[in-house]
Amino acid sequence: MEFKDDAPAALFEYHRRPSLASFLWSLWLKMPVQLRSLAYQALQRFGSATSSPFVMRLPFRLVMKTRSIRVVEALSTQLVGTQTTIPVPTILDVIHTPSQDGTGVCVLMTELPGRSMLALAREGIDLTALSNEQASTLSDTLHEWLLQLRALAPPSNEMVSGIASTSFVSYRLSHSHSVGPFRTMQAFHEQTCLRVRRADGPEAHILGAARDQKAYRLCFTHGDLTPGNILVNSDYRPVGLVDWECAAWLPEYWEIVSSVAQCPRSTEWRNMFRSLFPMYDNELALDRMLWKYSNF
Prior knowledge:
- It is a single chain.
- By secondary structure, the chain is of the alpha+beta class.
- It is 35% helix and 14% strand.
- The strands form 3 sheets. A 5-stranded antiparallel β-sheet has the order 1-2-3-5-4, with helices on both faces.
- Helix 8 packs across helix 10 (281-290).
């Protein structure tokens, strides 16, 4: 993934809590960047690999992401952690060292409990295996989380962008580079894979015209709400939402269409999101018609 830009690491401010451990950590963050970076590198010797080559599990229930992470992902995670009750990792430190590989950004965060829905699906425990109570709990929790995201106040510039008016990652739009920012909603909808062509059928033109004429709200959006990023406990109750690299200020319907696009073969997944936000059925139908212009 090629990133067009990023926010400066100096924008990160540790959110101190009323505890001795948090106070001591705030003192540690006053140490030079080079010293902290060396300490984290030393911790890696005692860490363990994860399914991602860019994520390492460290001692003390810590997680470190490097090489393919941007500062804006840490800022997005912190925004959600401080402004909502959605369980997300606590961001402990953000370091930018250009001499390092990839983005040169290192983010240290806490590890959340639970296992991803994707990991459980690989063991045969997917949406089709859930009881009615488990399915209802999953749906209700996700709905409540998304309502909290949608309640966050958008920036005054009304740009479709990352948290700091930067570009953002969207696997619905590109797998090779970050996109945006877009000054207007219209500019966003003019992207190649979102534009209705002359050769498309009449229904696509009708839905496309309706979409382009509608005044959508800007909502803070996870952007990659898939089974791999939702953590659940042994009762399949959601206990965490991770990987905020695609988070951005996007049209209010985007969370639904992007999530369904990432799981195109799962009827259960699509039906769950349709039940959560039935008011976006037209946007979802149009997006499915435009999948043929995407690279996923």
